[in-house]
Amino acid sequence: MSKIKSGTTTRRANGEGSWYQKPDKTWVHQITMGRKENGSLDRKTFSGKTKRECIEKRDKYNEEQKQQIKRKQAEQESQIQNGHFVDSEAYFSEAFPKWLKLYKYLPSCKATTYSGYLDIYEDHFEEFFGASKLFEITQDVVQEYYNKKKVIGGRKDRLGHLSPKTIQNHHMLLKEFFEYCLEKYKLESNPAVKTIRPRVVIPEMRVLTPDEMVIFMEEVLLRHTFATRLAEQSVPIDVIQKILGHAQSATTKRYITTFEPRLKEAVEDLSVFLSSKKLDDTKQINLRKDSYRFQDVRLPSWLEAGGART
User: Fold this and answer.
1) Which is nearest to 103 in space by CA: 152, 33, 30, 176?
2) Checking DSSP bridges between strand 9-11 and strand 41-48, what pairing results, if any?
3) Are 134 and 48 found together in one domain?
4) 155 and 217 share a domain?
5) Which residue segment(s) compose the domain that 243 sits in?
6) Disulfide: which of 14, 30, 70, 162 matches 149 by Cβ 3.0-4.6 Å?
7) Residue 234 in contact with residue 246, Cβ under 8 Å?
8) Do 178 and 167 contact (CB within 8 A), yes or no?
């Protein structure tokens, strides 16, 4: 039997493919898998130092292909029998936090944005959807969630309802997550798409009068100061949240941390604009030495320690 010269190709029986030896003595084995969509041959190539190495790679590839075909057949049979793919049996409580960490965290989003989304999940989504498998969350289930949140008791504290704007924010988050699940978990459709949410009414913007500005700034200043004082005394964030009547802890966190130098300057500038006749005589707040952020802020006299507005 004559040897095969380098650079020549030998063909075997139909289905066995062809062999080719390169000038560096390595072997190349090529088999035809079928035809591509454009009509050209679809070939798979294996290379190795010996023919045995090529054959082992070919056999391993063929076995992987068989297993993949079996998995697809099992999925199809399961879908016919159960009405859904096996992948969609993942629980919401497992899938949503993973998606949140992958796509709504650094560097894709700010840490504060991720924290806000996590609060929404822990305060609202987890209780309602957490124990459900993804394929069980239908359009009707999502609609039931929105309906529940817009009535009294829909908030975490059970004392009120969520605003249409907040429900819309929840909807956008759910819609994006389930869109991801269409491919990742083989959901048949996005259950949030055709739901109905409360109409968000955008109020007509109106410029406040100087007197209204005084009232507004006094109330904002008092609430921010009060919340910050509680935080400085190590009062838990969830307690401050209930006192202020916030639906989400993320709002309370922003309430406490926004009282920074820029806000102090804005308050002082506003005080000058409104003139001394619009404000009571003011007095500097007495603070601990470590409360440096507020040492230069001046408030109306009715905000003095122990004082009350008349």
Assistant:
1) 176
2) unpaired
3) no
4) no
5) 210-303
6) 162
7) no
8) no
